[in-house]
Structures are given as structure tokens and as C-alpha cells.
UniProtKB/TrEMBL annotation, chain A:
GO terms for molecular function: ABC-type putrescine transporter activity; ATP binding; ATP hydrolysis activity. CDD domains: ABC_PotA_N. This is Spermidine/putrescine import ATP-binding protein PotA. It catalyses: ATP + H2O + polyamine-[polyamine-binding protein]Side 1 = ADP + phosphate + polyamineSide 2 + [polyamine-binding protein]Side 1. The lineage of its organism: Bacteria, Pseudomonadati, Pseudomonadota, Alphaproteobacteria, Hyphomicrobiales. The gene is potA. Part of the ABC transporter complex PotABCD involved in spermidine/putrescine import. Responsible for energy coupling to the transport system. It is an enzyme of class 7 (translocase). PANTHER family: SPERMIDINE/PUTRESCINE IMPORT ATP-BINDING PROTEIN POTA, SPERMIDINE_PUTRESCINE IMPORT ATP-BINDING PROTEIN POTA. Signal peptide: none annotated. GO terms for cellular component: ATP-binding cassette (ABC) transporter complex. Residues 6-236 form the ABC transporter domain. Gene3D superfamilies: 2.40.50.100, P-loop containing nucleotide triphosphate hydrolases. Its EC number is 7.6.2.11. Pfam families: ABC_tran, TOBE_2. It comes from Phyllobacterium sophorae.
TrEMBL record, chain B:
GO terms for biological process: transmembrane transport. PANTHER family: INNER MEMBRANE ABC TRANSPORTER PERMEASE PROTEIN YDCV. The chain crosses the membrane at residues 9-31, 62-87, 94-118, 130-154, 191-211, 232-253. This is Polyamine ABC transporter permease. Belongs to the binding-protein-dependent transport system permease family. SUPFAM superfamilies: MetI-like. One of its GO terms (cellular component) is plasma membrane.
Length: 355, 262
């Protein structure tokens, strides 16, 4: 990145003997929406805590806006933080909560009042200004927390699983609301989540964490279509992992033999060698039922379950001991359990992943 | 089921009776018009209350109790709250666990032992027979109640509230003033009430460190019952009980607000 706004350099964090973040390098651009995605314990929240200043890195440096900030106390970092449990002050009203950061900055009372009203209108809570947080629903509380974290126009907004406690419908609405705010206010947002669909729908870039390290970082579509490792392929979306042995490589296409003896053609990645073993990721929606002519791969499989999902069907099939999930639309002719079918997919839909 | 309910009722009533029988015995005597502290009561009057609030020694002892009680409350609440803030949800290392135990020690150490130690030490620093000496003595036994109450509330406060305040621009002192202390207030109030109540009925330490000028109400009752058994004691007891009930009401109220906030 040519001019990153936030830069983490070789940042490590250990608690006693436990290393939570290890030698992390990460650059975040101004106005970027970046998601830190990973299972719990992967270090993503610790990074957020270090950005906010609640934890100090054991080693390494953190830069923001050209200044080194890792020894700065949280109240001097000018970063808005939104917590999963909202962390609203229970002894203050909604408007007092939202006014808090402005009061800390010593703004005149009339100006505070005006800006609090504007901020509450922005999140459609103007009518609840005098309520206590405990009198609001979860979604309303989260919007108060958003207003409070945005009202002082922070350079960066850090969000720690902010939608984790909301039900599905509300969560999807809030995802759109946050995206909208991000665009309108040109915010830089660091968003921690363990929900992959949330990361895919909201982010400019996603950093996938595993055991304190970034496994892969990139645009959502890159990560979904071209996962670099088995972990990423399984963590983002659903996938079929198929192991095989490379036989020959010819003109950008590799011939891979599956354990059961069937042969598939794979668009060859640069690091494939003949006789090497290989792990392929094939997305369930890329597999079609029925033969495909020309450049397609065709394999025979037996269906052992058909699961109805409303908008699509999910076929669970087995081919020479290899389980395969196929996502198909409902225009398929009726398939019955036990039936033998042909499954086909293109060489370009087989993506080689590192184990 | 009915047998169970019946036995619950019987045992419950028996326990309650066991606990409050002494109170029931003493309270009516406060209103006797006789000069003896015994039953039957020949007639009713409020002469012993008049005695309590007009006779020099009694009046003096009530004022002393209030002075010492208030002094103790202020000192113990400040010290106990600061102590609780320091002990709050740290990873309890051996050193800190020891310190915490020391904070709570005066609750279990026999008052006689404390009293002897204090008398020796206070004599050295000229604190015997002074109000300050008695206030310090009472504070020693009152601080644990404040620490326990405040610590309980502090441990219930979500750290993220304080983190949020810091991220919004509040310096540590401001976080303490605007977030931590307001949220800990119910615990601080309970602690203060316990401190006052502890001071009010403390006799043993008072016997050791107080002089005739610092005679508290409890101490006065103690000597009255040995010297001349007058129904003024019953009147004093009545005042005590009314005070205690008021304290209980304050406590309930502060717990109520805690729940409303939490």
C-alpha cells in the first residue's frame, strides 16, 4: 500500500507463556473497511485491543497517521470503539452517553446539544434521547454505541464483533447501516468478526487470522475464489477439499489422479510439480449435475442425501470414498437417494490450496 | 407437601422468635413509669426518654456516638473504597492475596486483642482518651465492611465500560470520577452504613481506648447496667433499634438503585 494510514510492524503479544499474536505486519488505508476474521483465540480481538490502547504489544510498533501510537494511552488515540456488549454507561441517559466524548473534549454546551441531536437523528433514535440504555432493545443500544463512537469524528473506528448479540434480521439491517455510514462519512473501520458472511458482505478487504498470524489478506472475492490455504478455504464459505496426485502438467493444465483412480484436470498453479500430492478446493455451487462436454471434468458419484434449503438444494454425494457437497438450484429434475449421477466442474473451478 | 409447608412455617417462626425475643423483651420496658427495669410494667410513660435526652451523661453519650460514628464512617469509607479499588480484579498474586486477607483481618481478630494492642500503641502517640483515637480504633474494625461491600460492586462492573470511556477521551482520573465511582456508589453507600453501624455498637475497643469524655451510647449502656439498672437503658435500646431499622431501610434503598442501574 502506497500510503497506509495505520501500520503494524512485527507486532507480537504474549500473555505469560501464551503467544496470541506473532510477528504481525498489517497496513490499513485511509477510508478502508477491513475485517479481521478468524476463529476465537486467533488473536484478532487482541489486535483491536492493541490498536485501541487497552493492551500494549510485547514487541513491535504501531503507527497511525504518521505517528507512533503504541505507547499512547487510549484516551489520547482518538479512536472510536464499538464493543459487542455495547458498553453503554448504565448510569447515564442515551443523550448523556452520546455527549460523553464531546464533554471530554470540552466543547461548549450548546454545541454539544446540537451535535448530539444530529448524531441521534443519524441513527434514528432522536425520540429516545432521555431513556436509559437498559430501557432500549439490543439493536437500539447498538445504534447508541455507534453514535457515541462516531460523534467525535475519530480517525479510526474499531468494532469488536459489534453485531454478535443481535438476531439475524437485525444483524443484516445493521450491516447495511454500518456500510452506509462507512461510505457517507468516509470512515476507516477495523471490524473484528468470526462471522464469515458478515466479513464478505461488508469489507473492502478481509484478513483471515489463524493462531496469531494472518493466513491470507485480500478482497472478499479474491479470498472466496482463490483461497491460499486449506484453512481459508474451509473458513470462508463451504468447500470440497479433494486430495490427489499430480501426474502430468501440459499447457497450463495439470492431470490429477484422485485416490479412487478417477482423473480430473486442474488449471495449474505455478508451484505444481509432477508426482507431487495436491489439495484442491472446489466450491459446492461450481459443481453441476450431469455431464459436461469439452473441457469439463466428469466424475461419477452416488447421492446419499438431498437436503432442501428453500432457495437451493444441497446434494451430499460420494465418489470413490470422497464425500462431495453440491449446491444446486431447484430446476434440477428430481433426484433420489442412492441414485448414481455424473458431476461435472471446470478445471478453473479447482483451486489448489496449501495444506 | 402440606407437611413440608407446615414444618417450614413452624421452623421459620421459631427461628424468627429466637432472633427477636430479646428485642421484644426490652422494648416495652422503655415505656415504663417505674424506676425498675423489670416486669410487670405498672404504667406507661415517656419519662425515660426524657431522661435519655436531658440527663447530662446520656445526652453527652449520644452526641459522642454521633461524632465518633460520623468520623469513623468518613474515614473508613474513604480508606475502604481506595483499598477496594487497589485490590480489584487483579490477578491475585500471593502478595496481593495476602494484602486482601490483611484488609479483612479485623473482622475475625478478637476485639480484645486489638484493644490491648491499640491501648499500648495509642498511649505512645498520645491518642488515648481522644476522639481521634476512638475514631481510628473504630475505623480499623469498620474498614473491612467497606472493602467487602465496595469490592463486590467493583467486581460486577464491566471493564469494557471503563475502556469505552477511555477510548472516548476520558483520562484515567476522569474515568474513575465519571464511570467507576458512580457505578460503585451502591456498594460505597452500603459500606458507609455498615461502618456507621459498626461504630455505633462497638464497646470493647471503646473500653480500651476511650476516656470518660468519649463515652459513647453503647459504652454508657454497658456501664449503666453494672452501676444502676435504670429503664433509661431500655429507652437507649429503643433508640438504637429505631436507628438500625432506618439504616436497614437506607441499605435496601441503595441496593434497589443498584438493581435499577444494573
Amino acid at each position: 500500500m502506497s500510503n497506509p494510514f495505520i501500520r503494524l510492524e512485527e507486532v507480537s503479544k504474549s500473555f505469560g507463556l501464551l503467544t496470541v499474536v506473532e510477528g504481525l505486519n498489517l497496513e490499513i488505508g485511509k477510508g478502508e473497511f477491513i475485517s479481521l476474521l478468524g476463529p476465537s483465540g486467533s488473536g484478532k480481538t487482541t489486535i483491536l485491543m492493541m490498536l485501541a490502547g487497552f493492551e500494549n504489544p510485547t514487541s513491535g510498533a504501531i503507527w497511525a497517521g504518521g505517528k507512533r501510537i503504541d505507547s499512547l494511552p487510549p484516551h489520547r488515540r482518538n479512536m472510536g470503539v464499538v464493543f459487542q456488549n455495547y458498553a453503554l454507561f448504565p448510569h447515564m441517559t442515551v443523550s448523556e452517553n452520546v455527549a460523553f466524548p464531546l464533554k471530554m473534549r470540552g466543547l461548549p454546551r450548546a454545541l454539544i446539544k446540537e451535535r448530539v441531536e444530529k448524531a441521534l437523528d443519524m441513527v434514528q433514535l432522536g425520540s429516545l434521547a432521555e431513556r436509559r440504555p437498559s430501557q432500549l432493545s439490543g439493536g437500539q443500544q447498538q445504534r447508541v454505541a455507534l453514535a457515541r463512537a462516531l460523534i467525535f469524528e475519530p480517525e479510526v473506528v474499531l468494532m469488536d464483533e459489534p453485531l454478535g448479540a443481535l438476531d439475524k434480521q437485525l444483524r443484516e439491517q445493521m450491516q447495511l447501516d454500518i456500510r452506509d455510514l462507512h461510505r457517507r462519512l468516509e470512515l476507516t473501520i477495523v471490524f473484528v468478526t468470526h462471522d464469515q458472511s458478515e466479513a464478505l458482505t461488508m469489507s473492502d478487504r478481509i484478513a483471515i487470522f489463524n493462531r496469531g498470524k494472518i493466513e491470507q489478506i485480500g478482497k472478499p472475492s479474491d479470498i472466496y475464489d482463490h483461497p491460499s490455504t486449506q484453512f481459508v478455504a474451509e473458513f470462508i464459505g463451504e468447500t470440497n477439499l479433494v486430495r490427489g496426485c499430480v501426474q502430468t502438467i501440459e499447457g497450463g493444465t495439470a492431470r490429477v489422479q484422485l485416490p479412487g483412480g478417477q482423473v480430473v484436470f486442474v488449471a495449474a498453479a505455478t508451484d505444481l510439480r509432477p508426482n507431487g500430492s495436491v489439495c484442491l478446493s472446489i466450491r459446492p455451487e461450481r459443481i453441476k449435475v450431469g455431464r459436461r462436454e469439452a473441457a469439463g471434468n466428469n466424475i461419477t458419484a452416488a447421492i446419499f442425501d438431498v437436503v432442501y434449503h428453500g432457495d437451493h438444494l444441497r446434494l451430499l454425494a460420494r465418489s470413490d470414498g470422497q464425500g462431495l457437497v453440491v449446491k444446486t438450484d431447484r430446476s434440477q429434475p428430481t433426484l433420489s437417494i442412492g441414485e448414481e449421477v455424473q458431476l461435472s466442474f471446470l478445471p478453473s473451478d479447482c483451486w489448489v490450496v496449501r495444506p | 407437601m402440606n407437611v413440608l409447608r407446615f414444618s417450614k412455617l413452624v421452623f421459620g417462626s421459631a427461628t424468627v422468635f429466637f432472633l427477636i425475643a430479646p428485642l421484644i423483651a426490652i422494648l416495652p420496658l422503655a415505656f415504663t413509669d417505674s424506676v425498675f427495669l423489670n416486669y410487670p410494667i405498672p404504667g406507661y410513660s415517656t419519662r425515660w426518654f426524657e431522661e435519655l435526652f436531658t440527663a447530662g451523661v446520656w445526652q453527652r453519650s449520644i452526641i459522642n456516638s454521633l461524632i465518633i460514628g460520623c468520623g469513623t464512617t468518613v474515614l473508613a469509607t474513604v480508606l475502604g473504597t481506595v483499598g477496594a479499588l487497589g485490590l480489584r480484579d487483579r490477578q491475585l498474586s500471593l502478595a496481593l492475596a495476602t494484602i486482601k486477607t490483611i484488609f479483612l483481618l479485623p473482622m475475625v481478630v478478637p476485639a480484645v486483642v486489638l484493644g490491648v494492642g491499640m491501648q499500648l500503641m495509642f498511649a505512645r502517640y498520645g491518642l488515648t482518651n481522644t476522639y481521634l483515637g476512638v475514631i481510628i480504633a473504630h475505623t480499623v474494625v469498620a474498614v473491612p465492611f467497606v472493602v467487602v461491600n465496595v469490592l463486590a460492586v467493583l467486581q460486577g462492573i464491566d471493564r469494557r465500560l471503563e475502556q469505552a470511556a477511555a477510548s472516548l477521551g476520558a483520562a484515567p482520573v476522569t474515568v474513575l470520577k465519571q464511570v467507576t465511582l458512580p457505578l460503585a456508589l451502591p456498594g460505597i453507600v452500603s459500606g458507609a452504613v455498615f461502618a456507621f453501624a459498626t461504630s455505633l455498637d462497638e464497646v470493647v475497643l471503646t473500653l480500651f481506648v476511650a476516656g470518660p469524655n468519649q463515652r459513647t451510647l453503647a459504652r454508657q449502656m454497658f456501664s449503666t447496667i453494672r452501676e444502676n439498672i435504670s429503664p433509661a437503658i431500655a429507652a437507649a435500646a429503643f433508640v438504637f433499634i429505631v436507628g438500625t431499622v432506618l439504616i436497614a431501610v437506607v441499605l435496601n434503598f441503595s441496593r434497589g438503585t443498584k438493581q435499577a442501574n444494573g
